[in-house]
User: What shape does this take?
Amino acid sequence: MRKYNVAVVGATGLVGGTILKILEERDFPIENIYLFSSKKSAGKALEFRGREYVVEELKEDSFARDIDLAFFAAGGSVSERYAKYAVKEGVMVIDNSSIFRMDKDVPLVVPEVNPEEVEKGKGIISNPNCSTIQSVVALKPIHDRYKIKRIIFSTYQAVSGSGLAGLRDLEEGLVECYPHKIQGNVIPHIDSFLDNGYSKEEMKMIEETRKILKDDSIRITATTVRIPVKYGHSVSINLELEKPFQLEDVYKVLEEFEGIIVKDDLSNNIYPMPLDVAGSDEVYVGRIRRDYSVENGLNLWVVADNIRKGAATNAVQIAELLIYKGK
Amino acid sequence: MRKYNVAVVGATGLVGGTILKILEERDFPIENIYLFSSKKSAGKALEFRGREYVVEELKEDSFARDIDLAFFAAGGSVSERYAKYAVKEGVMVIDNSSIFRMDKDVPLVVPEVNPEEVEKGKGIISNPNCSTIQSVVALKPIHDRYKIKRIIFSTYQAVSGSGLAGLRDLEEGLVECYPHKIQGNVIPHIDSFLDNGYSKEEMKMIEETRKILKDDSIRITATTVRIPVKYGHSVSINLELEKPFQLEDVYKVLEEFEGIIVKDDLSNNIYPMPLDVAGSDEVYVGRIRRDYSVENGLNLWVVADNIRKGAATNAVQIAELLIYKGK
Assistant: This one.
């Protein structure tokens, strides 16, 4: 089997480090691995498959060697500045930032949902927003079967979504990463605000969901909220469907879909929760029940590990898909 | 001015203790105060207005003395068993439990919203559910002006809503009050579950909102969720209104309503948060923005201190209203 030369940009960060862990766990076929970071973190040694690697400072010519695939997990400004150098060298870039996601030439891929899109990549494939990934996994089988007319997202997002700085704010009660104290608090503000009163995070959920489900007719609104939890995003999803449904069929459709685990046994207090899903690669769906306030209304509660399925795992799955498709 | 003989049932609990504090703060006209609890907590001494009072065990004949008004804050089973003895003795009962709320002969009162209802009391007035109180304060001026067609509630509820036991589970990482660890977790389960897949807490929000706003035509769904925060419930409210609106008018309508403070200045990172509202008696509304996914759609973010406005303050305000109306 062919092996690949792989680069991880942002290797000292939370997502970058988790990508390394997942490459190990999934036994990704790697020949050589190259780790990059900002000047500040360069020189650190990281272990990968029992060997130590020194992290290099990312530079414009970092990709001028035999690299097949690069994971970018160092934020939008790094991707914006350096991804083009990787692409120029023929490296396939899997980018975790939001910067290229809505570019019509860039596939935005969740492997369980729209694997066919990877074929269309012209050098960059974007990894969607964390809350969006877990939501579209749950929504895809429902959209296919019943056609979704309208979605209302309310999120409960963990601080690890902001990386190590978010975890530090929570653990130490600091106000460095967030504009307010997150310890013991709830902050209805993720990413910056736009003129329409929405945060960028909310607009990502709206726009990325439409792009991934390939249906601009779906009407969507979102409220995204940071809560004092370390790992695991939860999303309360309210749906209005085009077609009528039986609840037992919805359960079945969800259970049969790749990547979903239905946890919904109320009499035994079983429903998805962040503490249970941390460390897992699946999307957990529960509290599945009819919304009686509208025709064909459905409520779902969707939880996943935001660093794994919401970021690192999904990126590695995209890479696996690329290999599988022989790209 | 006339002074009243007042009883507090559940005086050693979180809500009971806060009722005492609020009676002091608001200089409620009290002649004598009587404190009651279960046998377990009886005998404790509590301070009120600089004097010590010994808590008595609640018994069937506890109200057979000159008491005008009793606050019940000891849970549904205590109210169910003992409120009738108070009523028989002519005591006006203000009950914090859910047990009588949907009884058509029992007014369910939020003083800013439906003060006229206190007139109809036949001995018991119910204090609504905590999340419902703060929500209906925000919704009342909007319903009056634009008529609400549909509401989708997603809540972010503090552990103090479960009293001292909830706080202990969070602080000490226990699994005693809740079926799962709440520390570092999110539990989409408040009160027990019903056959329709909703929790009782969710049905309270649906049914109580309709009763308080006196409009059974409002279509409502709810998802109620416990998060690891001590004080302050947050509610993400999605609305579909009958009439078109201008956002600046919505701001004005909210700002002019008694009991509401609008906190909505995104460029300065100002929006309601639990840490800011703890200790306050107002309902805070922010993130006011159009929901473009439906005609006349509106999103709101509503936060209040669940123990004060969500319970104790509202109960004392009902008592003040009773006095004012000369009941």
Observations:
- The two ends of chain A are 14 Å apart (CA to CA).
- Residues 232 and 305 of chain A are 4 Å apart (CA to CA).
- Chain A touches chain B through 53 residues (CB under 8 Å).
- The domain at 131-306 of chain A is CATH 3.30.360.10 (Dihydrodipicolinate Reductase; domain 2).
